[in-house]
Structure formats: structure tokens, C-alpha cells
Amino acid sequence: MQKVFTMKAERIAHDGAAEGLYEGGAVRVHGMLPGEEAIIEATKKHGIYIGVIKEIISGSPSRKNPEETHYLSCSPWQIADYALQIALKHEILVSLWGYYDNAPKPTFVPADKFYGYRTKVEFSFTDRDGDRELPLSLAFHERGGGSRRLALEKGCALVSDGMNRVALALCEKLRAEEYTTKELKTLVVRESKSTGKLLAILYAKAEKLPKFPVDDIPGLTGFLVFHSTEKSPASVPTKELWRTGEDFLHESILGTEITYSWDSFFQNNIPVFETAMKVMQDAIPPNANILELYSGVGTIGLLLAKVAKHVHGVEIVQGAVDSAGRNAERAKLANYVAECIPAEKMDARLLDKRDVLVLDPPRSGLHPKVIGMIIEKRPPTIVYLSCNPETQARDYSSLKEYYTVERITGFDFYPETPHLEALAILKLRA
């Protein structure tokens, strides 16, 4: 049952939602800033009211007009001026690490570019605007709207004009071929910021999707089409239907060329990542022997190999390991190797005689078995980069008996959103 009431935003949670109270119960709303008062329409779920703004009664002086009407779906902090965004993200880090007496106060590195920075975007499709029918359109899922989707007339401001142009052109071709949302699932577009080249990957619910020409779309260097089972909402390939052009991109990071395939993880904000990379390089002692877990296509490890004695990468995806090997050969870095194995299943002896352990895990953080191996082998230095500071701080709680925190730095990899990247440098206790 929905309720309408007035709420004051008391604070911002770690996921970027404003929090307040109604009848003694917690209320969470995206799109509000601290101190604002608004009329809220909310539904109680698991003891917490989840609401949407109906009207702002008293706005923050830091509130600004969003760039897009769909901002809640992609970047809910478009309503906050950048100084407030940085202050809030810094506060998140301070609150997470404030529990540890030995931790220094975190610092924070802002971004220079607020829009067009993403290297990857995933669109869904819609043919409706409320009760009104639309031609097939790109879409994002509406935050708090269940399965509802918002049509995107121009794409999204977080990605480049080129990425939006390719996505819109492909949607137009799909519309001309008379495909509907019954046959289509999602469209992923990826861009090399160094070269401007683009890949697109279409995931279809249909098990057959005949070829259509795409070579007239400027900048599109490769297009892959997959059937993706409706049993999962995720964009995962069930069967390849067809492809044309290349299936990889090149990116230059601090002067090193990195090649990655259409399905590999890659960082989303290259300039800010390069800044973080310099901090990691500075944290590595001379002539270090490094083990890197969750090593991907070798981006971090290869850049560290330039200042280290040896780097050994561990990665679960064979394709990424293959790309890392080719990237090492191209860079003429004979002191880098990688192997394909889940980090939690590796032999703990890989940590023997390592000076540095580098970690860049998924949002879920470190597997308990990995933490157990760290405690057993206790490498002298840990360089831990995380896209989820909450799980990073949680992981440290298991290591605090053995490690002190030398440095914590936040990086604004994701302007206009509540997300941030955090780098923790840990040193073994004497």
C-alpha cells in the first residue's frame, strides 16, 4: 500500500539514497539531498519505506537542474553540484574507515570530466511511454519502477556522442527490420577513448536474428549478435548468432597499449584510473615480486611490471588471461605472467616470497578463502583497489590484526553517481 507524506532528508546512505523517517520508520529516497524537505510517495518493503519524490518543498542550495530526465536511472546525483558530490563521497569513505583507530583519514581525488567518460553502456529496449505506444526505442529501467522502462530519445549523457550515435543508429536499423521488445533484450556499446573505435553487442531473446548491414555506421568497428536466454535477465550469451568486424578494442594507459575483447572487464574512467595507477606504482617497493589477483587483461599488472621485478597475475576468465599474455608480449614485458584460475582456488604457495599482493576484486569483495590465504602467508604490502568501499572496509576487518592502513584514497571514477573507487595501501604489522 502506498503512502504519501512529507519527509526531511537527514543523511545520504552509502548507495546514494537519502534517508529520513516517517512514523518512526526508515525512509529511503533517491534524488534528494541532505537537508531537503519533500512530499514522498512510498511503499513499505521489508520494514523500510522506499519512496519517490512527488514535490520538493524546500530545496538545497547545492541542488542543480539535471542534464537528463532519466537521471535517476543512470546517475542520480546529477541534481547535486560537484562540490557536494565530492564532499558526500569523501564522507562515505571517512565513515567506513572511521571504525579503525589505526586508519588515516581518507583523501579524495575528483574527476575533471563529468559526462561522456564511460567506456561501456548497456541499453534495454521499450515500445511504450506509459500507456502510449512508441516505435522501438533505447531505454533504461526506471529506478523504483519495477519492470518499467524509460525511453531514451538521445541516449545517455554519461557516454560519448559517438557511443550514443552508434546505439541510436542500431536501434533505427532494428526498428526498420520490424523487431520488437519480444525479440530483443539489451544492446551494449563499448568505446576506446584512445582511438574512438566502438564495438556493439546485441543480446536477443529470439533464437534467430538474420543478418542486416551495419557497415554504414561511422565508428562502429565490430558488431556481435547473441541469443540470450529469457531464463536470466542478465545480458549473457547463450548462442552466437552472427558477427561482423573486429571483436576487440585497444586502449592506451600511461603509454602502454592494452587490448581487450568484447566481453572483458575494463575500467570506465581512463584519466582518473591513470591517476590511481600512479599512486599504485608509487606504493610498490623497488624490485618487488608481485602477485595480482583478479588480474583481468593485465592492465594493472603490466603497468606495475614496469617498476617491479616480476608480476604474476591470477584471473578466472581464460580469454582475459590470453589477452594479458598478448599485451605483455606487445609491451616487451618478460617479467609478467598470468594464469587462469579462480583466486579462491589457487595454491596458497603462490603467495610465498611475494613482496606485494595486488587486489582488484568484483563488488562482492574478497572470497573468505582468499582472506584465509592472506592471513596464512601475510605478504608485506597489500594494494587493494575496490569499486565497493563497503566490502573493502569489511575485508579489512578480517585483516586488521595483521595489517595497518598506510593510506586510503578515493577516486571519482563515476561522477554524477554515488559510486566511487577506493584504494587502500596495507602494511604488515611489525
Automatic annotation (TrEMBL):
SUPFAM superfamilies attached to this UniProt entry: S-adenosyl-L-methionine-dependent methyltransferases
Chain positions recorded as S-adenosyl-L-methionine binding sites:
Q267, Y294, E315, D360
Q: Organism source for this protein? A: Candidatus Lloydbacteria bacterium RIFCSPHIGHO2_01_FULL_49_22
- What are the alphabetically sorted keywords of the record? Methyltransferase, S-adenosyl-L-methionine, Transferase
What GO biological process terms does the UniProt entry carry, in alphabetical order?
rRNA base methylation
Please report the name of this protein according to its UniProt entry. Answer: 23S rRNA (Uracil-5-)-methyltransferase RumA
Entry annotation: catalytic residues: C387
Q: Which molecular function terms from Gene Ontology are attached?
A: rRNA (uridine-C5-)-methyltransferase activity
What is the top-level taxon of the source organism? Bacteria
Q: Which family does it belong to?
A: Belongs to the class I-like SAM-binding methyltransferase superfamily. RNA M5U methyltransferase family.
